[in-house]
Fold this protein.
Amino acid sequence: MTPSLEARQLTRRFGSFIALDRLDLKVEGAKCVGFLGPNGAGKTTALKMFTDLIFPTSGEAFINGISVQRERKRALTSAGTLIETPEIYGSLSPREALELVGALRGMRADEIRSRTAEVLDEVKMTDWVDKKVGRFSKGMKQRINIAASLMSDPEVVLLDEPSTGLDPRGMAEVRDIVRGLKRGRRLIFMSSHILSEVVDVCDEVALLNHGKLLFYDTLSNVEKRLVGNATSVDLSFLSPVSDDALATQVGSLPGVSSLSRVDAQRATVTITGGHEVQAGVLERLVAARIGLLSFEPSRSALEEVYLQEISKGDS
């Protein structure tokens, strides 16, 4: 069976405030989907309705085609969840914490033992299996939280900003784990407000703002949205470039619609057009022999589209 997650007109109001506004979204297949949006966009509210932690004002959520609101236990049997940041008792070891989760799930003792070993291996915590969680870093605790969400070997995994609050090393570790989860033929639905995280680990992205879905698409199609639009590119040079050289040999190139100097050896240009136009600008800069050292987009394609779409929604 193909794993799936679906929202049908999913809405949540808190008084006069609309946290989620008629969300229609269907995700199918083994992949990682980034549920992206600024803080307060409604991401956590949606995930809580997918897991029946809060009730929708109207609409319905489905996991593998089963209504979460009408058949909660059956729907959530095939799901693993990490919502916000649960706290593990510091006096427990990872083995003890996961055995408790397995027992709450109604798993048999032999299943609990085998799955505990498997999930700790997935999150790279085997060496810490009998240490006290209270001594762990935030990143290590989060890895145990992710392991807990995997105890029932779920087909659908919902993660709510799993790297929030972690240091760079912890963030990198969690992202590596999420990439590994995709190899398990699971559907991973991961909320985030960190663009680089979504680009790094996800295959598709759904963008939410003010409780409304702005778009749902593959990352490759997100790039195509920029064709014909302006892209900001940062340039750096081996040695200082004069204003005249910058204007005549950079600013006048076909496709360059604006130019601004950052310092003596750096500038930013706006290029209007797709990848072919950008490639043409790069070729001419190299041919000009003015010591071009680097040529890279100021923002990722996802960031460009994100800012454009969020700006539309805020206007």
Summary: The first strand starts at residue 4 and ends at 14. The mean pLDDT is 91.
